[in-house]
Amino acid sequence: MAAPLLESLSESLGSPEPAVRLILSILIGYPFALVYRQFLFYQSATVLHLFHLLSGLALATFNFGSQICHSAVCILVQFVMLRLMGRTITTVLSSLIFQMVYLLAGYYYTATDEYDIKWTMPHCVLTLKLIGLSFDFYDGGKEPSQLSEEQKKAALTSVPSLIEVLGFSYFYGGFLVGPQFTLRNYQRLVAGELTDCPGQPPNSVVPALQRFSLGFLSLAIYAIFSPYYQDGYMLTDEYDAQPFWYRCVFILLWAKIVLYKYVCCWLIAEGVCILSGLGYNGIVDGKPKWDACANMKVWLYETTPLFGGTIASFNINTNTWAARQIFKRLKFMGNKTLSQVLTLLFLTIWHGLHSGYIMCFSMEFFIMTVERQAQALVRDSPLLTKLANSMLYPLFYVVQQFIHWLFMGYALVPFCLFAYDKWFKVYSSVYVCGHVFFLVAFLIMPYLRKVLVPKKERGQKKED
């Protein structure tokens, strides 16, 4: 009965059935959260773990059928590792290797040249969750003096039970599209600690509806405009026949629209987490904060003219996870740049096996390197600082935004088109302008510093 209804709904919406199933599953999280608040908030931990497990399994089955076996296998293997190997570096390495190899094998055997919603999509979220679990379990065996403040908050001082790990893994607010959260935070949710009203369900309905509204608006924007900005159009002869400026502007607008499919899912899922209480992040200046599960800083994302600003506002929890579990743990190498490269390499592999991911993340690293140099140049140059704070700033802002979104789109092309023959065709059609622009900027930056930065400032910079 459900299949014909979903087929009719997908046809009327003009969306693939898997996408409709996914959006409906994220939305179903709201009634699940209301059931938890209304009927289960005061129940025992075991009852709550079972509720989270069964509700998450129901959503997983609705979307992927018998393929939920993959998540079950990885969760059970992870639990056995924790039990048998204990708080050792062997546990961490074994978890990292097993979970990543399983995920990559899934990518390999299910790979296509199109973006498909299949079991590997939630499994990549689960992979980080389980690897993070092994790190946090390992940290729980260390002395507090050996841990950072972040690690102290996430460290597991006791051995989690199987039902606890299952509830954490399948929690309906985060299983399908994230966000990432720690088992320690999940334990606090089950214990009823994540509330601004001690002993009662949190006053989080309004904040949850606010995120839901933003998510629904993003979904509407994507649904309305995405038919006009399809990935495949950039591979057509019609696109190649357009003027160069048109091809560039198309990439800019396409990038802005295509990212809304991620934004809408994350915002709606965040609303579910807030409604359940998982989004509670303490009291600041007398007001409760609900951003513990925020994957988007919407205002920053929409207004920043900087590539760094977009990265800081987009997929926040995954970036935070990578910073905490990978980047900061590579501190022993004593080389920040190498740590950044290895972290980006991990994220590249985690996303998939397509060459497009390698190009996208390498381009991101190059762009961010040039942008940091440009920011330092503006900061150190009295002339550029004066211009940046003058009445001309609105003009500079518009130009920055154009460059920002043009080359955000440029870097996003291989991420969305995957295969080398596809993304290189698009790059060729715009004369690899992104690579040319940033390579030229990188090469001339030292000469611009010599001209625009006083010798005294350059000398202080060298000393620093």
Give an account of the 3D structure:
- The protein has 464 residues and is mainly α.
- The protein is 72% helix and 1% strand.
- The chain has 23 helices and 2 strands.
- It has helices at 2-13, 17-40, 45-64, 69-85, 89-110, 120-139, 149-154, 162-170, 183-190, 205-225, 237-241, 244-258, 260-276, 298-303, 307-313, 316-327, 336-351, 355-380, 382-388, 393-417, 420-429, 433-452, 455-463; strands at 283-284, 287-288.
- A two-stranded antiparallel sheet has the order 1-2.
- A hairpin with a 2-residue loop joins strand 1 (283-284) and strand 2 (287-288).
- The longest helix has 26 residues, at 355-380.
- The protein is globular and about 65 Å long.
- The termini are far apart.
Please summarize what this structure is.
This protein is mainly α and 464 residues long.
Radius of gyration: 24 Å
For this structure, the quaternary state is single chain
Largest sheet: 2 strands, antiparallel
Tell how many strands the DSSP assignment holds.
2
Please indicate the percent range of residues in DSSP E strands (runs of 2 or more).
under 5%
Give the N-terminus to C-terminus distance in angstroms. 68 Å
What low-confidence regions span 5 or more consecutive residues with pLDDT below 50? none
* Order of adjacent strands in the largest pleated sheet: 1-2
The percent of residues in helical segments reads: over 70%
Question: Shape, please?
Answer: globular
Average pLDDT for all residues: 93
H/E element sequence: HHHHHHHHHHHHHEEHHHHHHHHHH
What's the tally of helices? 23
**Main structural class:** mainly alpha
